Amino acid sequence: MILAAIDIGSNAARLLITEVKPYGNNEVDFTKLNLIRVPIQLGYDVFENGSIGIEKRHNFIETMKAFKILMNIYHVKAYKACATSAMRDAKNADEIIEQIDREVGLQIRVISGQEEASILYETHIAEQFQNNNASLYIDVGGGSTELTLFAEKKIIFKESFNIGTIRLLNLKITQKHWDSVKYFIKNEVDKYQPIQLIGSGGNINKIFSMSKVKEGRPLKYSALKDSLTEMENLSIDERVHKFNLKDERAAVIVPALEIYTTIMKWANATEIYVPKIGLADGLIKLLYAEIILQKNQ
Known about the structure:
This protein has helices spanning about 40-50, 55-75, 85-90, 95-105, 115-120, 125-130, 165-170, 175-190, 200-210, 220-230, 235-245, 245-265, 280-295; strands at about 1-10, 15-25, 25-40, 80-85, 110, 135-140, 145-150, 155-160, 195-200, 220, 270-275. By secondary structure, it is an alpha/beta fold.
């Protein structure tokens, strides 16, 4: 069957279309058919003004129309559409969601930071990179960072923090925000040392591809710090030119590096694994599990 997931983040909206086939008695193959990313950048409006402005609202709705057309072309059987940090904070989120339902026929649900962390668990990333007893999953977005602690094949703790790349760019992060992350790591994560770190998000994926590190191998903390030092001393145009980045990626990659390296330092981690999966992948697996459960009832 063909399933789809829509992830509406603070920086971009993503549509993942996946073919799902059972294999044997207990296995399931998830084959990615298409992944589309559109940088609608809702967070730039929301974190500055509290709501989504006319231009970004228009781009948001048009993007959803395009996603719906693609889903029809691929004969998608079922989908999940979720919005995260920017839509959680936007005063006009409900109004826009109703408009999209009415004009496009897509139902979008705004999820909490804790739900976001739980959905990420559905990707079972930690099991793929299990070298230690515990893993800390770090998902950095435009509006928030989700930290999920895995140990003994279960979630020990999950937390969402309003620290994201766009919030940092808009100078919306205070020392209190950073202190809450540090407190979580020191009081929850330190109990499970040594711990393995797993990173998710468009920025860490881009950094990984630029690093030339082989798939399945981790990025070193020292390499990330070197990248941060180099990039923060360059203008956005210089980053675009030197690293062949898109403008919007060149703007957010430095605050992303700042978040990842800060968390790695507090967790006493020297490396981080970067599988290329995220919230949309978790939504697909969650959706498939719900379909199978309904079929078996």
